[in-house]
Amino acid sequence: MREAEIRRLLAANLLCAVSIILAALVPAFFLDGFSVLGTHLTWLCVCSVCVATLNIILHLVLKPSQSPKRSSFAHKISRFLKCCIYFFMSCILFHAIIVLYGAPLIESVTETFLFAVLLSTFTTLQCLCLLGPNVQAWIRVFSKNGAMSIWESSLQITTVCSILGAWFGAFPIPLDWDRPWQVWPISCSLGATFGYMAGLIIAPLWIHWNRKQLTYKSR
Amino acid sequence: MQRWPVVLFLAWVCLLFFAGIGLFMSGFLLTRIELASSSSCSDPLVPPPWERQSLPPGSCWAPQRFSKAVLIIIDALHFEFARFDPAKVSPLPYENKLGVLYQLATSQPRHARLYRFRADPPTATMQRIKGLTTGSLPTFIDVGSNFASYAIQEDNLLAQLVQNGRRVVFMGDDTWEGLFPKKFFRSYFFPSFNVKDLHTVDDGILQHLYPTVDSGEWDVLIAHFLGVDHCGHKHGPDHPEMAKKLTQMNEMLRSLVDHLGNDTLLLVAGDHGMTETGDHGGDSEKEVNAALFVYSRTPLFGSGPPEEPETIPQVNLVPTVALLLGVPIPYSNIGEVMAELFSGDGDTVSAALQQLSVYHINAKQVDRFLQSYSLVAQDLPAEQLQHLQELFSSAVEEHTQLLAQVQGTMLVPPELESRLGGLIGRFQRYLREARAVCTQSWARFHPLRMVGGCILIASSCLLCYMASELAASSHSFYRSCLLYPLLWGLVGAALLGLAHVFTQEGLDLLLVSSWAAAASQLGFFWHWWAWLGLAFPMGILFFRCGAMFSDSFVVAEARVTPFLLASLVMLLVGKLHWDGRLTVPEGPKQQLLGFSSYRREIWYLLCLVAMLLVCVRLSSFFHQCREEIPQCRPSVFLSPLASLRSTRAKNLFYLLCVALLAGLVYAVQSWLRHYGNLNSSDPLVLFVRWGFPLVVLCIACYWAVASSADDSLGKLQELVQVAVIVFPWAVYGLASVGLLLLLCNPMTVFAKDTRESAGSIVTPYLGVPSSEVDFLHVIPQIYKRMQESQKNRLERGSCRATVAAYGLGSVYSAALVIALTLLGFLLMLLHSERLSFAFLLLFMEAFVLLHIHTSIPISSPFSVPWYAVISWILAASQFFYSTGHQPIFPAIHWNAAFVGFHLDHSTNFLPAVLVGANTFASHILFAVGCPLLLLWPFVCEMSSSQKKKPKKESREELQEVEEHMMEMRLRESPEKFSTALLRLGLKYLFVLGAQLLACVCAAMILRRHLMVWKVFAPKFLFESLGFVVSSICLLLGISLVMRVDCAVSTWFSQLRLR
């Protein structure tokens, strides 16, 4: 059972990673002059949308969080709206935090906000898919021994990796190499993306490696 | 542990660090040996005999071309100031103002020419004067001696002139007086260092200039104008004042030209340029790009001027002027003559011959200098000297051959002409290469000393760390710290040895040992893995230290430090959450649900973190700029209010600043009142109540006077002059009175002794009560007293009376807070007015940091965790930048030396202290406030449990009330208290030392880096000075706590005796 689930997780994560790679390559065939560095804002949008849709589809297909009770249609709608609000709020929050960390306040607001959206896609959206708009559950997952399934462990790892990637992405900005990717927020968004992808790959491996130690509490 | 050993131990550690810094500095900062020899007329540097015979009387080495010279030095005359572009429609305030230079150069192209005059860094005035007269390159450390100019010992132009009987008259900047004592035939010195004074020097010169020129009693006249430089410092180049100043200079030059005779050479030179903010000292393009203008009434140049003005190094002026005036070139000159000035009015061949002869003399002089220098010091590389020697001798050889040929023939054939040109080129090449070799190798280091210093600092760091851990050591320390790592190392070495055996390679001992070392370290860290996980702030510290090794990161440090601070705090909260230390321990019921309910404090903590982040972000609006980041604009808050043009904005900002000061006083007073430290009638408390507002008043008055426009006051000018001095002195006086009071009696405790009054109910009424009124007065008192004592007895059970001491629980912090506030006032006074916002942010951020530190549950209250210390130091370095500083010399706020002083200083000590205090303001505040990290959790103990003002402290140790002990818990266990202070001090020193170590290593490893003099060396100097200041202030802060502790002890013993 567990082996099979790990395999499913691996497949899903690999799909996500492939989708990110495709998001960087495929639009070049449709859009003139598209490149990750040159038209960074477009790429940010494309990547966010790709990852978001794929995640939602995967969530619907795989149903990692088996909700025991059937809920009404109205309930589902309200859940969905709540999710949207949460997502938007997380974008705003990320934006604020990024600005507090030293991003320009007025110039390049669009860039900063799209970067915040990308980060939210990598982190908040996953949480929303897996846990729903339930802050208590989020708090539980992001604490020691809080994960209750391999999906939640994977969520932990990918989220932390994305944020760490974004954090490390800020490091090359002051360097005087004069590279195109040192412009705000390219290095950070690339860092976040690479971090996310690394998280996607590390998570199943790590879970597989530690499958003996991992004992999940039952609900 | 007693009190004294703690301070002594910390002082000892500080001294270890200082020794390391000193050792490193002596090896790192460059030195050049000054030669005592000087040139003289009879030197055997003889030109060929046929020329020597034609030397006119009064000439040495070369025929004198001008008998008189006027050297006008306009301080900070940037090239752009001197350039005139008639096509420009709307020139900036500093553009197109020196029209007379342009007119002369266009109307008389063979008489006048403008050059770009490249100053060698450092571009401080004294170094430039040295360079302009000795013709050599001053080294880096000379910058520091700007306050006191020492007399120039080396051979120089003035000495040569005087030696050869020329009368040198000087007027202007009194820096020259110190550099050339008793050299001048006549001199008019004016005080130079008050940069706010634009006119004294210039008006003084103008008063004497024309009469002196007309009198004719001079051979060389030097006038050094300072107005332009001071205007740059005060207002910046882009200001109407600058236009006025330059126009004044223009008029001065115009009338001076009319006063000159035919035999006079006029040189107008800037000693350095200025940056966009009007500063100088570094080596940016704008600072080194000065202007030189040459003019004479007789034709000077053989041809017209080139399209674009030629660039010449500043030292080239020395040999040129020396030979034009017919005096020997100074001994240590490495400059090259400006040949076109020697072309005369003959044909091209004779011009070339003349140029060749001056080049020959110049080359011989440089060769002589290099030879005697290489005898004294070995720092010039031998192979390069060899190469230069070859260049020189071949050129000289060809020169002799050519001369023989030229002498033989009357008519010079054209191929000889080209050979002449080629030879000039070879001499030029020799001179330039010699200069380059000197420039390069006067960046000379003592590697051994540098390594020694590095090792000393590193081992001191290690010592700090070890001692701070050992102070609370566990018994298994050695086993886990030493034994296991050693085992690991052995295993690693064995593995590598086996691998070698299998692969049958030669056994490399070095490789094996390094492998073993790495493995043993790994073992150490493996064993302490869990512990390292706790000490995650070390990671942040590691990043901070690593950032010192990249010039880009040093340049961007103003942004890096807040980033790291924010990350540290966020990581801290994240980690606490991850560990579940923010949640209430789960009950069985909640566990079933899978929820963990949050404490209410989490919101408080999150608010604090948000406030901290906002503070950090806001503080970035006060940054100064470095020239490496061209798109950066310096913060508008850095300029003094006086530079604001709009009166409304000025008034608004002024009111805001004063309100802020008042708010600060109010905040401090209400904090003290809240903890009951404002109740007693001790002189200190009275000072806090009445002295603080008075200080604020004085500062406000000073700001008002200083920021008012210079001209608008008219008759009140004299009064203003006095007020500008008096108010800062009042603040200095009040602050020192406050600090003295703090030292004498740091107790801010108000004791209500109920025992005393219980013993003597007797009222001051003597004798029998005579009237009804007295009875009415006394009887209720007796009744009340009885009632109270009864109540006490009932409540306490035991019949001992108590002493109620207000503010005893925060007596240590109160003293520190008072000291910090006073220091804050002093430092704000030294900064420009609007930087007080930055200080407000500083105090707020420190407060928030303390609260975050307090609200995080810690295991033992007597040890300050690493993250707190690191965040404290990060905040200190962050506010170094946010108070408008940068670790570069042009960014030093020299104005601070004149707060409270109008004229020049008599000593160097006071201005150095003032400027140092200004520069390291945040280091001082944070280091003095460091013990608060230990005290704050105790102070806040009450507010977290119960909000109640007076805290009762039972005199009897047996009957202590357990709650509200606050800082008295520290007195409970004096041993632990001293140890805790020691550990805190050591941790602080460790973190500071780690940063210093990174700087030192960066400077050492990258000493041949392109940016070493621009980035790493200044960074190292600022960091080491900051370390010295911080460590001394840390000692002072800890001693203050100790002093309070002593006072508390005596207070208790007095209470017991009573």
From TrEMBL, chain A:
Annotated GO CC locations: endoplasmic reticulum membrane
Cross-referenced Pfam families: PIG-F
Protein name as it appears in the record: Phosphatidylinositol glycan anchor biosynthesis class F
Keywords: Endoplasmic reticulum, GPI-anchor biosynthesis, Membrane, Transmembrane, Transmembrane helix
Pathways involved: Glycolipid biosynthesis; glycosylphosphatidylinositol-anchor biosynthesis
Membrane topology: Multi-pass membrane protein
Localization, UniProt: Endoplasmic reticulum membrane
Transmembrane feature ranges: 9-29, 41-62, 83-106, 112-132, 153-171, 183-209
GO biological process, one term: GPI anchor biosynthetic process
Automatic annotation (TrEMBL), chain B:
GO CC terms in record: endoplasmic reticulum membrane
Keyword Aminoacyl-tRNA synthetase: no
Coiled coil start-end: none
Gene Ontology BP annotations: GPI anchor biosynthetic process
Major location category of this protein: endoplasmic reticulum
Location in or out of the cell: Endoplasmic reticulum membrane
Regions crossing the membrane: 450-470, 482-502, 528-549, 561-578, 602-623, 652-672, 684-707, 719-742, 803-829, 835-852, 920-939, 986-1006, 1026-1052
Pathway: Glycolipid biosynthesis; glycosylphosphatidylinositol-anchor biosynthesis
Membrane-topology annotation of the record: Multi-pass membrane protein
InterPro entries: Alkaline_phosphatase_core_sf, Phosphodiest/P_Trfase, PIG-O_N, PIGO/GPI13
Keywords carried by this UniProt record: Endoplasmic reticulum, Glycoprotein, GPI-anchor biosynthesis, Membrane, Transferase, Transmembrane, Transmembrane helix
Similarity-based family: Belongs to the PIGG/PIGN/PIGO family. PIGO subfamily.
UniProt protein name: GPI ethanolamine phosphate transferase 3, catalytic subunit
Organism: Malurus cyaneus samueli
Organismal lineage: Eukaryota, Metazoa, Chordata, Craniata, Vertebrata
